[in-house]
Amino acid sequence: MAMPSHAKYLIIGAGIHGLSTAWHLAAQLEAKGLGGGKDVLVIDKGGIAAGASGIACGVVRNNYYQPAMRELMAHCVEVWESDPKAFSYHPVGYMQISPEPMHADVATIYEQQKAIGYDSTFIEGEKDSMAYMKGLFHDWQAKGITSVLHEKKGGFANNTASIYGLAKKAEDLGVRILTGAKVTGFQYGHNSEAVTAVVTDRGVIECDQVVVGVGPWVNQIWNMLELPKEVAIKGPDGKLHKGIPMWRYWCLEEGTLGVDPDLQKTNDGGPPPVIHVDTDAPLHSDVDGSLITDEMWGIYYKPDLNFGGIQGGAMPYVVETPVDQVAVDPYGPDSPDFIVGDDFAHMWCSALAFCQKRFEGQIKHYKMNEPSGGLGCFTPDSFPVFDRFRENVYVIADSNHGYKMIGVGKLVAQELINGESALLKPFRFSRYAEGKLHPTSHSPFPWS
Ligand SMILES: Cc1cc2nc3c(=O)[nH]c(=O)nc-3n(C[C@H](O)[C@H](O)[C@H](O)COP(=O)(O)OP(=O)(O)OC[C@H]3O[C@@H](n4cnc5c(N)ncnc54)[C@H](O)[C@@H]3O)c2cc1C
Hints:
The protein is α+β, with helices and mostly antiparallel strands. Helix content is 24%, strand content 28%. The site of flavin-adenine dinucleotide has 39 residues, from helix 1, strand 2, strand 15 and strand 21.
């Protein structure tokens, strides 16, 4: 594609957010008689699905302790359900299987799911939880479980296929997608803060509105936009805590057990829901019985033809390197630093065996020769920031919650054309200074 010199809407990033925004902007501009896809340009330094969206495990769930996240996810699930084929979406459901310290949190989630009409079943008590799980998987054996939340909606989607599905929807409406063009800076107006042009390694593109959907690279673009590197957060104590870094990296640990995906069928031979287990029961090695951890831990897994086996992950870890020095590129499986190693394989496969007898002794099938895992860039409270900066720059920073958030682009498009979205409002940057923080749960994951 020839290098354009101007775009009304210039979107940086061809991942889930950039492409969903592009598709919906095109549709909504056309519906309102304000233009259409020809006004929307997506640019990416790599290609379509070159970032986190292209390597995501692909889990789609509603299970969030924060009411605003749940409502937003219910909206996103509707978008997934709008075209499962195009999005390679498998609505098999999702299960949050939890220990006693999380019982009350998950009970709240269930109550609020009922309130918003999101179909789920909640089982309480150790005996009933075990019976429910054995009703699905005869070999269930996880210990320390006192509640099971079974979401009947949600499930998973195939990462790259879904992003190409989104790209096609956008392109069908006339959106242009320019790949291999890296944003290296911005030009600003003389009398305003607004961006007048985006500088790339292939030339300058003037624009009226910028949308940033760059996933793990958000810190780089944030710096180019000269936005604050630190924030002040008003805590529950009413005090302003200053000097909190705006961004930090976590490394997500995921992998695949290279067995027949059909190994993980339900008792009736059907496709199983995505399983997420957290527990405070000690985890022992499936190889030699040694103690792996006696602290709260968690894993998730699903059979996946795309990955070729049972695919899933465990808790991520914090990257201690100062944020500006973290080597985001090469990204994902190409990174020499941020891929999983033997420790992950040992822990995750032992945890699978802890949950279901069918996984005992299967660690030998773990796909060590296929690098996996990747970086995520997190906000100070690990929840998304969806907001406008510099008058005409809309930043979509999902704090790594985001593959499932296919519907955020629809709401961003609405905000760009029509004004505020109630679903996005709780995710403004100003919440830090105002102390309007989301409640936190007892989950061992930073994004629950
Ligand atoms: C291993 C892993 C597993 C995950 N699993 C899940 C999951 O199961 N469910 C879930 O909901 N979320 C999951 N996530 C999180 C999710 O993948 C991300 O939150 C989401 O994909 C971010 O989407 P995005 O569109 O913002 O960014 P990305 O998909 O990362 O896309 C950003 C794009 O921006 C481009 N870009 C970056 N910098 C520039 C620049 N300077 N100029 C031009 N282009 C640029 C990149 O090339 C890239 O293509 C996972 C994340 C990881 C790392």
